[in-house]
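Let's study today's protein:

:::
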Amino acid sequence: MSDGNFNRQLLPKTELSSGLRAGKAQMRMKAEKAFDEILNTYLSSHSEEEKAEMKSKFLEMLR
């Protein structure tokens, strides 16, 4: 049975809120990278301008 201290090793040495912000930033970066891969793989026939517009709308939705 856990004593509740196991999560301390997963977070940075600062407060919990900074660890949560860091985790959100990592997930945002992963989502952005995955979206870029989707655009390049499945929508390669679209122009770069259309891809940029799709990406900007996607990033806006993440906020």
Observations:
- The mean pLDDT is 83.
- The longest helix spans residues 16-42.
- Helices lie at 16-42, 48-62.
